Amino acid sequence: TAALSIKNLRKTYGNNFEALKGVSLEVQAGDFFAVLGPNGAGKSTTIGIICSLVRKTSGEVKVFGHDIDTDFSAAKQELGIVPQEFNFSQFEKVRDIVLQQGGYYGMPRAQAAERADKYLRKLGLWDKRDTPARMLSGGMKRRLMIARALVHEPRVLILDEPTAGVDIELRRSMWEFLREINAEGTTIILTTHYLEEAESLCRNVAIIDHGEIVQNTSMKSLLKRL
Length: 226
Ligand code: ADP
Ligand code: ADP
Fold this sequence. Notes:
Bound molecules: adenosine-5'-diphosphate
Mean pLDDT: 95
Low-confidence stretches: none
Number of helices: 8
């Protein structure tokens, strides 16, 4: 079974704008996959649909064979999502945000605590665990969102433009971390508009433009053609 299978996905927003015009793609288990495309191509819409934040117009999405419409709770357990934008409430503390997410996945408190601490350490946020999240720098907020997405140890991690606006130093350390968890077996799918990011991290790539997949190939053969 594919880690992610998308078939003929369409999205027309309320203003009749066709953001996705029949997107199909398949990501194999263990892959490090890039969805590469310019701003406005439909990347966030696709991710929004996968995590059921955006209602699709038609098409099918399966995560390890679990249809997000008919088998939502099984699909949800397989998925960790790092959105591009996030709003933390005023006083929520870093560690509590990760713990709450464990609760959302039905994890026992002790297990959530153990995982929260593990990922806060791995992502360099241990010292900030009692800090209100809104006081973190942009890069730290992104790392917090990664820790939060990993607390239930999903088999698929999807990140929407994970390093947009992040400085080069932090970008490299985030890349390193993502390579590490991919090497440990997590399937990673990220959207990006930086070719360099896709090139540095990903084995396979789909290029999306104006709501359509225009290429779907290995990173190596894409680079040969450029
Ligand atoms: P649907 O209900 O079909 O899922 P939405 O209700 O989410 O679509 O869209 C609500 C409205 O919000 C849209 O019709 C649009 O006017 C506006 N909107 C929100 N985000 C954007 C955006 N990025 N670009 C253009 N319009 C937007
Ligand atoms: P990307 O993530 O690749 O930048 P998006 O999926 O955010 O692209 O947006 C794809 C297109 O859909 C853009 O033209 C955007 O303006 C439009 N769009 C996004 N959200 C909405 C919405 N809620 N209502 C109407 N149009 C939207």
